[in-house]
Amino acid sequence: MWYIIDGKNQLSLGLFWDPHDPDGTKADLLLSEYKVDKAKGPRTAAAPSNADEIPLDDILDHMEASNPEKAGATDAEIRNRTNLLFCISELRKYWSGKYLSDVTAQSSVEYRNIRTGVRWKNQTKESDSSKIRVTGTQSARRELEVLNSAIQRYAREKNLTAIRQAELPPKAQPRDEWLTYDEVARLLLACRGRRWDPEADDWIRDARGRLVIKDPYTRRRRAGIARFILLAAWTGTRHDSVLRLRWKKNDSAGYVSGDLRTLFRRGDREADTSKSRNPCRIPTSLQAHIRRWQENDDKRDLLNIVHQQNGTGYNAYIQITFKQIVKDAGLDPERITPHTLRHTCAHWMKNEGVPIWVAADYLSMTVETLENVYGSHTLDSHELVVDAFAHRKRQVSPDRRSNASAAPVTLRVPSDPGRSNGRGDRWTRDWRMSKRPNRRRTP
């Protein structure tokens, strides 16, 4: 859930994290409106009865008019506007002709039932029944979120105080997909033209045992995506910020430092948003790749770090090409998205025992977000428990200690839980220092 923190006041925006809007563009828009509305000062309240007489068509028209097509809009802005217009068109099919007073819990449930189970527009009647995709409750939830946002915007600009809000369906559990080191390596090899055979659990080979490689054009076209995968997985930087990275210091986009040790996620004069984009250190293994990229790009005098084969930056999202790469790597393209690489970086740091406050600062997010979204454990992170039981002291049986005097048990509680060793927390705080070295037995 997105909130606006204004001093001691906390205002809920009614928006949850959306995988189709990982950068929180909707939240940024509402934050800007809140600042403008606050600067205008207190407003005059309208009679509650007038609010219920407002046609929902006027509210949706106002929402659409408030989001005109901009010249020079970024890829994220174009994509978000397209999704917004689609949601408005779906909302009109049910709410057109109704009034604000008709927005009730019952009508919200009715809308959810109507929108659930609808075949996607790109699914034809001849499509394979096993691959047919239909809308779910989360589609209805996103559209009702747009309706609530439209009502809130209309109320702010028309000085209304008595408004209604649609009741949202329950939010689905956040998708917590992430990749292992081997799976990321498979993505990179797929960028080089290889294809994975799930049945053989190996790369596809011809009759003579040689690797089957895609054509040179496809390999050149995917070279820029390989850079994106490395940068996103090893730094946890968001999708849009990685695509806009530059080689030299500038005001409008992120860049790398001259010594290639620091990645600045936003330009020097770019306005900060609710999605923080703080600088981060570049891992040593990634610095070698960046140094090689820089040597090649300097020969062509290129500006973008992640670029197409003609040297220009990506003007649109890379979802289509990325899905093809994921499929060639033998992974599920419906579950693995570019944002999955950010989850991957978080899980790698957690499994390596990086303290949670360090990981949150590196990913440029709060500790609470890191725990809520990325905090689920894997079995690999339970090695500390296995190691602890392997080196436990031999316990005395109850009958042997019956005559012993009972001694009080003392549990030491650290004064600062945020800096404890973290054994009781969901994230590993400082497990690396508590691990014992492997003992080699002598013959």
TrEMBL record:
<dbReference type="GO" id="GO:0006310">
    <property type="term" value="P:DNA recombination"/>
</dbReference>
<protein>
    <recommendedName>
        <fullName>Tyr recombinase domain-containing protein</fullName>
    </recommendedName>
</protein>
<dbReference type="GO" id="GO:0015074">
    <property type="term" value="P:DNA integration"/>
</dbReference>
<dbReference type="InterPro" id="IPR013762">
    <property type="entry name" value="Integrase-like_cat_sf"/>
</dbReference>
<dbReference type="GO" id="GO:0003677">
    <property type="term" value="F:DNA binding"/>
</dbReference>
<dbReference type="Pfam" id="PF00589">
    <property type="entry name" value="Phage_integrase"/>
</dbReference>
<keyword id="KW-0229">DNA integration</keyword>
<keyword id="KW-0233">DNA recombination</keyword>
<dbReference type="InterPro" id="IPR011010">
    <property type="entry name" value="DNA_brk_join_enz"/>
</dbReference>
<feature type="compositionally biased region" description="Basic residues">
    <location>
        <begin position="434"/>
        <end position="443"/>
    </location>
</feature>
<feature type="compositionally biased region" description="Basic and acidic residues">
    <location>
        <begin position="422"/>
        <end position="433"/>
    </location>
</feature>
<dbReference type="InterPro" id="IPR002104">
    <property type="entry name" value="Integrase_catalytic"/>
</dbReference>
<dbReference type="InterPro" id="IPR050090">
    <property type="entry name" value="Tyrosine_recombinase_XerCD"/>
</dbReference>
<feature type="domain" description="Tyr recombinase">
    <location>
        <begin position="174"/>
        <end position="388"/>
    </location>
</feature>
<feature type="region of interest" description="Disordered">
    <location>
        <begin position="394"/>
        <end position="443"/>
    </location>
</feature>
